[in-house]
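Hi F.,

I've been meaning to write this up properly since the lab meeting, where we talked about keeping a consistent format for the predictions we share between groups. The idea is simple: the sequence comes first, exactly as it goes in, then the structure tokens exactly as they come out, then a line or two of notes. No screenshots and no reformatting. I'm using this chain as the first example so we have something concrete to point to.
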Amino acid sequence: MRHLHGHPARTAGPPEAARAFGRVAADLRSSGREPAARVDDALIAASAIAEGVPLYTYNPADFAGISGLDLRKVPHPDATGDTSGT
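Output, unedited:
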């Protein structure tokens, strides 16, 4: 996991996260997406998988095709209709 298409690996987490990152990168490649372009999302997904926690996002398309990820969609803050600013 030293490099992902020329990008230095940016994880210093536990071995479980490193293994999950490899699986996430493989899933992204299999779905036709370039892992190097999605490295930040891949690290987030790998961390959630390794820790066994859901990933909450308002843009689930960023994580589509990643197996083993418990993805939870939340409404975008701009779409709530709340104009109070709080």
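Notes:
The two ends are 42 Å apart (CA to CA).
Confidence is low (pLDDT under 50) at residues 1-8.

If this format works for you, I'll send the rest the same way.

G.
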